[in-house]
Amino acid sequence: MSAAHPGARAPRTSPGHLAVIDMQRVFADPASPWATPRYADAAAGVRALLPAFPGRATFTRFLAPQRPAGAWRAYYDQWPFARRPPDDELWALTDDFAGLAEHVMDATTFGKWTPELAARTGPDGRLVLAGVSTDCCVLSTALAAADAGAEVLVVADACAGVDDDSHVRALQIMELYRPLVRVTTVDDLLAGAGS
Q1: Which of 1, 111, 152, 178 could form a disulfide with 140 if both were Cys (CB 3.0 to 4.6 A apart)?
Q2: Which residues of the chain form beta strands (DSSP E)?
Q3: How high is the mean pLDDT of the chain?
Q4: % the chain with pLDDT above 70
């Protein structure tokens, strides 16, 4: 992103805190009703980012609530396959991340901007987002974090949507929130151009 953009900020010495959203089997398995077609592409982007965030990465997992309430009841009526306990293998991080995830945070909501993630990001912190899906849990997390005052960077090529069009549309929506939310790439972030 151009440093001449009116929303640009001065470079930081720390890249911030990385939240890796929902890199789970339920989204990776092509046979899953919630399969993310470009999961492998997002995973490659996440793997490229991780070395830049030693001790500063949180992996999240989406879980079904034990007893859905409110509108979530209709949601799980639509997706009954997902009514499984937290220890079901469906919810596990994929094998390529299970051994790398030093900190894992579970949530029964699309948005992962919880008090726990806020504390790990720190006051006036920078939150870098990667994972799946761009048009659901990444988007929900980005907007809530931005509302709370976090500087949010969404790494486009370390995310994947339910399909390519939804991925692009979600990125375009998040770009509308500049300078609160900015979209960048793995290469630009690692080179400092996301600052």
Answers
A1: 111
A2: 17-21, 57-62, 104-107, 126-132, 151-160, 181-184
A3: 91
A4: 91
